[in-house]
Amino acid sequence: MQRTYTSLLGSLYGEQQFSIRDPLWKDIHLPLSFKPIIADEVFQKLGRIKQLGPTFHLYPGAVHTRLDHSLGVYHVGFSMLTSLLKQANAGNLTLPCTEDGMRTFLCACLLHDIGHFPFAHSLKELPLTSHEAIANCLICYNKSLRKAIEQAGIQSEKVGLIIDEQIPCDNEEIMLYRTILSGTLDPDKLDYLNRDAFFCGVPYGTQDVSYITDQLTVANSKLAVSEQAMGSIEHLLFSKYLMYRNVYWHKTTRSATAMIKKAVLLSFADGSLGSDDLYELDDEQFFMLPSQRKFPHAPLFTAVRDNRLYRLGFEKAYEAQGVLEAHTKDLASRIAFESELASKLGVPESQVIVDIPEPISFESDIPILGEGGRLKRFGDFDQIFSYDIGKVFTKSLRKFRIFTPSSISQEAILEALEL
């Protein structure tokens, strides 16, 4: 069996025949057969969608794209796969990997984000198709992309199976690749934390990625890490907290994304925009929408584009049982609350936005392989990142916020809220 893993490793390294220079990982090596996939217009569109959307209004360097990130996920995915094969070659685990399967997995790493459109993550609450489902559709039905994939000796349907976990699958090899690509410790997270920190110019997200990938293993069909990597996992989880605190959920970022969400939601409601209008857009096309059709809520789009963001008018810690939270527990009740508050303030409903970030988790359930082959959750091994500290981090990050134009005073908002 060791000879088989040696052959798989040789095949994997032997196919890396050209490189792309990346500011984060330096040289990213890829197979020549992937060149047409990268050159396809579906993949190239990712170069016109910023990874962090409007965050460049806060951190001007944050203009990196989903294309950059996708290449990074390929690179980290390759490192994770080779690390596991080396472990298997040493006799430490058994893997169901094949040459075709590995090539399919790496293609899925490269294409995992092709279903993204501008502000896709910010619009999760809206009735939109998931970016994974869109990616699967593009991979299977876009003629030029499908042709490029199949010319690389890869079955398009299997790439889609790895990316879209909602599709039923009982193939052991595909399920392993799903675990790697979309697990609690995945190449997506290892790239975006490092990449976002790099381009924002902040120190919080930098990870010891090579050490983490070297300590990977598979136990009970799940991706796990050895106990020796505990310190690196602590660093990873604390970095995630700091990036949410200082970048992803900073009030400036939240104001911009909340304004876009409100503009899209109101446009859906009045029929001036439909979900299908969004899926094929890049950033420039998204912000050109108001100039191409009559949009009652065009000023919100334009204000975000031009960095004329709403001011933070009210903020409190999110409380699941809070009074304000009870009135805004879902999208419909939130819209009604905003409309009522706007009426009290004597302003249009588009000028009052309630922002409540979605729940997040700090993955204390990462499997850790201890001495004697014992498999436990990370939170059971670690005294710092227990389940409780994850809840504390989440509680400290989630805020109930109201954004309005600066012409509306904070005192007026408090009076309207009757606080």
Keywords:
single chain; 419 residues; alpha+beta; Hypothetical protein af1432; Growth Hormone, Chain: A; 2 domains; four-stranded mixed β-sheet; 20 helices; 11% strand; globular
Description of the molecule:
The chain is α+β, with helices and mostly antiparallel strands and 419 residues long. The chain has two domains: 2-248, Hypothetical protein af1432 (Orthogonal Bundle), CATH 1.10.3210; 251-359 and 397-417, Growth Hormone, Chain: A (Up-down Bundle). It is 52% helix and 11% strand. The chain contains 20 helices and nine strands. It has helices spanning 2-14, 35-39, 41-44, 66-89, 99-111, 131-141, 143-151, 156-163, 172-181, 187-200, 209-214, 230-248, 251-270, 283-292, 298-305, 323-326, 331-345, 378-381, 387-397, 410-417; strands at residues 16-22, 26-31, 216-219, 222-226, 311-317, 353-355, 367-369, 375-377, 399-404. The strands form three sheets. The chain has a four-stranded mixed β-sheet with strand order 3-4-7-8. The chain has a three-stranded antiparallel β-sheet with strand order 5-9-6, with helices on both faces. A hairpin with a 2-residue loop joins strand 3 and strand 4. Helix 4 packs antiparallel against helix 5 and helix 5 packs across helix 8 (156-163). The radius of gyration is 23 Å and the shape is globular. It starts with a helix and ends with a helix. The mean pLDDT is 92.
